[in-house]
Write the structure tokens for this entry.
Amino acid sequence: MFTFIPNNLPPQITSEMKSNSTEEKFNKLLFDGMKKNLYLHWALSQGMWNMQASSLFDLVNNKMSQYSLEGVVSNIRCPTLICEAENDLSYAGQPKKLFDALLCPKTYVLYTKEDAAEEHCHEGACHLLNQRTFDWLDETLNLSNIKGSY
């Protein structure tokens, strides 16, 4: 649950990521994959830059492994809004897994093709995302009952 491994990686790469591969073999496999897959090239390059990783192996096995909600999701107590894009190629299903694991008050919103918001980060539908998020905040925080609110 809540893994870094994106859903759309080639099976050879995901199995290697889960094995006890040598750093050299792992880096070569991912580097070769990056040459063939533009998304993989972007995602791993961006990840290395963001996480200041020294290698692909370092990124996946050290840096990204620090970012998991495994074992801590039950500590979340505040009301939580979980949004998922139905065509999210990177992390399909992970928002729903998080929603199901939460014990706090929670709301799940699935953005669909009909919303024109079905892609990762709801690209192209910022107004809809903002409207639904602010509506949720208004309802959740009961802002309309505060004197002087909009």
